[in-house]
Amino acid sequence: MRIGETLPPLEIPLTRSLIVATAIASRDYRDVHHDPALAQERGSQDIFMNILTTNGLVDRFVTSWVGPTAVVKRIRIRLGAPNYPGDTMTLTGSVSGIDGDRVTVDVVGANQIGVHVSGLVEVQL
Length: 125
Hints:
By secondary structure, the protein is of the alpha+beta class. It has helices at 16-25, 36-41, 51-66; strands at residues 10-14, 71-79, 87-99, 102-110, 115-124.
């Protein structure tokens, strides 16, 4: 592992079922995550993914790469473009820091609209 090393990209198909099921699983019952008509009424083109799901997918992306013995110590993300059904989010990342047994990975998740999520994940090996 070295600074600048890139992670293999991960493509996540954004199905309506994924968006609704993960919102419900994280107890986020806001209508914008499951009701298209109400989401549109509130100014969105459709339902969209919630931040807890995005956070979990970022975690999965990094931990799948680093391995099962690593412990996530910190995740800091910022949301941008919404993840709508029918699109694909591609997660990419690179190692931006190494401090002893701690590794920091910069992560970006983009869809056809733009950057959905950006941030960092710090893991302890």
